[in-house]
């Protein structure tokens, strides 16, 4: 089993948690709460900023005492765009489930000067990326273009069965703007139907890191560095929620040279097969 892949801890409560300390990095935090109606997820953000993503279900949200009412819409991550909310550093949030809920708690180091806000469906467009068997549906929840956070970048992707995503392979592990940015990343995976599975490879150019994770419903994969493509098998759509953060809130990636030709459309290099 890959050391970068985490299985859910049970079916209820905080079933996934990645902290900078547990991951051995400096920025990204991720947690997943499964709540029954009437149950609550609440915390002080301290020196971190948080993006709450309703993977599924509905609930009432308060941020620093302000009641945002009931939010949420979809009952499955495969059924429409997400509701989310941004909670700055130095705030407190309290989310009370009104239905069964999967709530993702995405975090990174925060800073002053940012405001709490709701991110309802339609805040950012859903776009289709890629072509053929590399087609996937992308929903930016907190992209770099919105300027609304200190470090956090959050995005959802749905990859149809038999397709690939985060592909052709790319990486973002060098603080070398404008060519490439340093961003740690987590993937939270779901499958439809849930007995489906897929694969994710995380590897560096020198292969000092080279792991393949078998992906099942509810798994989390940590990407500290390197390329990280995903493939799902025929008949099972794959959803993942990405959390990225680093010293600069910029997503600049570097494509693996061996597969660069897939972008250019000029054909495979000589000697390939």
From TrEMBL:
GO function terms (MF aspect): glucuronate isomerase activity
Keyword annotations from UniProtKB, A to Z: Isomerase
Gene Ontology biological process terms from the UniProt entry: inositol catabolic process
Region annotated Disordered, chain positions: 1-20
InterPro entries, per database record: Deoxy-glucuronate_isom_IolB, KduI/IolB_isomerase, RmlC-like_jellyroll, RmlC_Cupin_sf
Domain of life: Bacteria
Pfam families reported for this sequence: KduI
Name the UniProt record assigns to this protein: 5-deoxy-glucuronate isomerase
